[in-house]
Amino acid sequence: MSGLPLPLRKLTEHFASLPGIGKKTAQRLAFYLLDMPEEQAKSFADSILEAKKAIHNCKVCQNFTDKEICDICASPDRTDKIICVVEDPKDVQAFERLQEYKGQYHVLHGLISPLDGVGPEHIKIKELLQRLQTTEVDEVIMATNPTIEGEATAMYISRLLKPLQIRVSRLAFGIPVGGELEYADNVTLNKALENRMTM
């Protein structure tokens, strides 16, 4: 990036720091932004600052919202009896795209990862436990990713919930629909075998 003026280099570096953005894409975005009319660029910058100021965690489920309680928690069409525990707000959006799940969510904002210095106290587990003491819940669905950290977090929370006598379930993982067995890795194949269902 040598040869670029310092402000353009800084802008490119900011874009490159975003997840999934490489150096070439970052540079393209920076140049695109410079080609924008000033009013449009100002509107873009203002929307970033506005989102940073206005968005916070829902006091019930910890999902992002600009209100005290998010629209999902406030909806009379959702049941309080089932809570789906996810890693971050993007996971809520994935479930909402299905338009099938009618329960509530709880967003952890991370996973337990001792190697990265992230313990149970760094994510929203305490808030989940407080919520379960004030709400009558039949089932908690652990919907963390099937990674080492996701599995460890799901196991940790399920152990904490055992004394509360709430049913704890885990999302089934395995062969995707349309997938072929010969291309499945060992972990996926093993999970598919473990999660088999009676027909």
Comma- or semicolon-separated keywords:
199 residues, alpha/beta, Helicase, Ruva Protein, domain 3, Dna Topoisomerase Vi A Subunit, Chain: A, domain 2, 2 domains, 4-stranded parallel β-sheet, two-stranded antiparallel sheet, 44% helix, 11% strand, DNA repair, DNA binding, DNA recombination
What would you say this structure looks like, in words?
This protein has two domains: 6-54, RecR Domain 1 (Helicase, Ruva Protein, domain 3, Orthogonal Bundle), CATH 1.10.8; 57-193, 3-Layer(aba) Sandwich (Dna Topoisomerase Vi A Subunit, Chain: A, domain 2). It is 44% helix and 11% strand. The chain has helices spanning 6-16, 23-35, 38-54, 71-74, 89-98, 125-134, 148-161, 186-194; strands at 56-57, 64-65, 82-86, 104-107, 139-142, 167-170. It has a four-stranded parallel β-sheet with strand order 4-3-5-6. A two-stranded antiparallel ribbon has the order 1-2. A hairpin with a 6-residue loop joins β1 (56-57) and β2 (64-65). The mean pLDDT is 91. May play a role in DNA repair. It seems to be involved in an RecBC-independent recombinational process of DNA repair. It may act with RecF and RecO. GO terms for molecular function: DNA binding; zinc ion binding. One of its GO terms (biological process) is DNA repair. Residues 81-176 form the Toprim domain.
Physical arrangement of strands within the biggest beta sheet:
4-3-5-6
Task: Work out the radius of gyration.
Answer: 21 Å
Helicity level, as a percent range? 40-55%
| First-last Cα distance | 59 Å
Q: Which structural class should the secondary elements be placed in?
A: alpha/beta
Q: Outline the biggest β-sheet.
A: 4 strands, parallel
Elements, N to C (H/E): HHHEEHEHEHEHEH
Instruction: Specify the number of helices.
Output: 8
What would CATH call the class of the largest domain?
A: Alpha Beta
